[in-house]
């Protein structure tokens, strides 16, 4: 005699037994999910300090494990309750129509899951990378890659949720792929009356003295006397000579701060040296009364 039959003979109603079984199975499932989730999160935090690629794989496996536990708990409940089991058998008998309807309804979701697996396998980006989705003009840091979507934290500290199918089919600009160093271009226009050579020299000196600026020259370039900072005349515009300087930094955030600092400092230096930063001028010619 099974334990269920024994409990029923002792007076416990069948419906109460079923409810007790469902509750017990649900509690065990939730506890297992909670334990696995905590363990996986700790492993992910540790791997973030060592390898972003491993952290990405673990984050994806975390969702797979949680989904598997929920599915197992549901399957145990259904298989041990005759009424539910019979209902599932009937649904499976009519599975042809349901499969077509379900397939059409879940096509996008399944596509995102498959795309997530492809992202995990080929690693165009991992957790912690600074990326830009060119098609949608979304830029930020990859925070999470789930079964369905990728979460990106923008520079405004907002979370953008992008389906994996969109990420997999988009052109992704990854600032940390292979080499995290970033070159930011700083363009400044000076007037035609200014000393261009002196303006280039002052700009190069200001950039070179910044502690965040990186020397990316090869030993051969250093031996050949290539300048530490490259400053060139980019264009001869209508009212300005545009100078462009290359600012190398260790990452995207540092490059942005470096560019802002140099812009502020070079304005003060140019003012002291008598070099005028160009801006649009409007010349108004007023004709006299006798003019035609």
TrEMBL record:
First-listed, main subcellular location of the protein, grouped into a coarse class: membrane
Tagged with keyword Cytoplasm: no
Domain (Mechanosensitive ion channel MscS C-terminal) ranges: 187-277
Family to which this protein belongs: Belongs to the MscS (TC 1.A.23) family.
GO MF annotations, alphabetized: mechanosensitive monoatomic ion channel activity
Protein name: Mechanosensitive ion channel family protein
InterPro entries reported in the protein's UniProt record: LSM_dom_sf, MS_channel_C, MscS_archaea/bacteria_type, MscS_beta-dom_sf, MscS_channel_2nd, MscS_channel_C_sf
Residue ranges occupied by any Mechanosensitive ion channel MscS domain in the UniProt entry: 110-175
Transmembrane segments annotated in the record for this chain: 12-36, 57-77, 97-122
Keyword Cell membrane: yes
Bilayer disposition of the protein: Multi-pass membrane protein
Pfam families: MS_channel_2nd, MS_channel_3rd
Subcellular location: Cell membrane
One Gene Ontology term, aspect cellular component: plasma membrane
Keywords linked to the UniProt accession: Cell membrane, Membrane, Transmembrane, Transmembrane helix
